[in-house]
């Protein structure tokens, strides 16, 4: 698949979790090709479920014109709210 531009090496960023961290957003390049990290952060709200946040991020990427695979997983830390 390398011949057509598909690679198997993911972008990885290490981050030590802090007590103030609330969400982890894992998304495909179709999301990150069309939005910045801060754009995704803006969708992360305490009063929404992680499912709703992930769906909003994918919709935001599609609305910005993403033509690539778009998928997203949101994990909430230190919360007693909706999952």
The chain-level structural class is alpha+beta
Outline the low-pLDDT stretches.
none
Task: Report strand %.
Answer: 5-15%
The helicity comes to 25-40%
Oligomeric form: single chain
Q: What do the pLDDT scores average to?
A: 88
Q: Give the termini separation.
A: 37 Å
Strand order of the largest sheet: 1-2
Shape: globular
Quick one: biggest sheet?
2 strands, antiparallel
What is the count of β-strands? 2
> Nearest-angstrom radius of gyration?
14 Å
Q: What is the count of helical runs?
A: 3
Q: Helix-strand pattern, N to C? A: EHHHE
Description of the structure:
With 83 residues, the chain is an alpha+beta fold. It has a domain at 19-76. It is 30% helix and 12% strand. The protein contains three helices and two strands, in the order βαααβ. The chain has a two-stranded antiparallel ribbon. The chain is globular, with a radius of gyration of 14 Å. 14% of the residues are buried.
Keywords:
83 residues, two-stranded antiparallel ribbon, 3 helices
Task: Please specify the SSE layout and strand pairing.
Elements: E1 23-27, H1 29-32, H2 37-43, H3 50-63, E2 72-76
Antiparallel strand pairs: 1-2
Brief account:
The protein has helices at residues 29-32, 37-43, 50-63; strands at 23-27, 72-76.
């Amino acid at each position: 698949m390398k011949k057509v531009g598909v690679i198997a090496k993911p972008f990885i960023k290490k981050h030590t979790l802090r007590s103030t961290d609330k969400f982890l957003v894992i998304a495909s390049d179709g999301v990150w090709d069309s939005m910045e990290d801060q754009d995704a952060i803006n969708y992360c709200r305490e009063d929404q479920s992680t499912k709703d946040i992930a769906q909003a991020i994918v919709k935001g990427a599609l609305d910005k014109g993403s033509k690539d695979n778009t998928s997203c997983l949101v994990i909430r830390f230190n919360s007693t709210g909706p999952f």
